[in-house]
Amino acid sequence: MSETVIVAGGCFWCTEAVFKDVIGVEAVESGYIGGDVPNPTYKAVCTGTTGHAEGVKVTFDPDQVTLPEVYDMFMGTHDPSQLNRQGNDVGTQYRSAIFPLSDEQRAEAEAAIARWNDSHEGQKAVTTIETGEWYPAEGYHQEYWEGEGQRNPYCMAVIPPKLMKLRKSFADKVKG
Fold first, then answer.
1. Among the options 11, 14, 46, 155, which is catalytic?
2. Residue 156 is part of a domain; what is its CATH number?
3. Global pTM?
4. Which residue range is the domain that position 112 belongs to?
5. Looking at beta carbons, which pairs linking 77-81 to residues 24 or more positions away fall under 8 Å?
């Protein structure tokens, strides 16, 4: 039986690209969560006034990749110590957040944040645990890295280092 998690760690194009490379991940959808405006658009979310984060909904097979592994991959492929930013992307829409869909996911999210903090002496994750309604992003944002992203200079600068972190730290969980 598949499981779904929702995380936000900066640009959703980047987070989507990471999880598309993970064995056992069945689907990744980019979208918006955590705000107070119904049916937000990319243009509105980019203003930082809707309260939404750019996030991804990851559906995976827990027999191939576990919930703790998914959360550890999330924490390990972005910088959870940066408040409301990832690199040059600045604003609350780029915050580091986990949106658990169950009590088990909340407990595992708390454990993943604690593991990251324990392994990064002198740094502290600012990753929040939140709730919110999920809104899929517009179609042109889906599977962005596989299409337009590899021609986008921003993506070419930001996504390959994240994929290298994934391959280095989770080599046995990365698609060939």
1. 11
2. 3.30.1060.10
3. 0.96
4. 3-173
5. 77/9, 77/15, 77/18, 77/162, 77/165, 77/166, 78/9, 78/10, 78/14, 78/15, 78/162, 80/9, 80/113, 80/116, 80/125, 80/126, 80/127, 81/120, 81/123, 81/124, 81/125, 81/126
